[in-house]
Amino acid sequence: xxxxxxxxxxxxxxxxxxxxxxxxxxxxxxxxxxxxxxxxxxxxxxxxxxxxxxxxxxxxxxxxxxxxxxxxxxxxxxxxxxxxxxxxxxxxxxxxxxxxxxxxxxxxxxxxxxxxxxxx
Length: 120
Description:
Elements: E1 9-12, H1 15-25, E2 29-33, E3 41-46, E4 49-55, H2 57-62, E5 66-70, H3 74-84, E6 97-98, E7 104-109, E8 114-119
Parallel strand pairs: 1-4, 5-8
Antiparallel strand pairs: 2-3, 3-4, 6-7, 7-8
């Protein structure tokens, strides 16, 4: 059995919140957009990664995901995020920290999800 990608579905009460953290802060691009439809939805893409964003208040209340983005240059990512969008830095991991398991990490969050940026 072989898989090529894992594509998370993330639900927001207001899809604009998801666009702010993924497009404005992390530099994803909109690959497909139905943002102005009755059921707002879009596909975000960057470097072979893909995320589906949905506007659905009921599902947003039920789902608060957390996931990791792995990078080879955490200092570059941290500098960009902390300079452009410091409001997203997670209060419990707002600086690059060497974790006991050997990875360097920092975290960001918005109203809906947490993202740990990680470098092994």
